[in-house]
Amino acid sequence: MSPIHHSALVLAAEHATTELIAFLIRYTGGFVCVAIDEEDCARRPRRPRRM
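Above: the chain sequence. Below: its structure as tokens.
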């Protein structure tokens, strides 16, 4: 069994553009993770993730 290697591309939100986000999605696993504060999190509806 081969080990799984993980890596990440990190981008400051203030520098995010449509082109950079598209690059992240296209050339990585297709997921973009963001950090949000508790107040923003509470406002967002929760939906089950489909894998």
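The mean pLDDT is 81.
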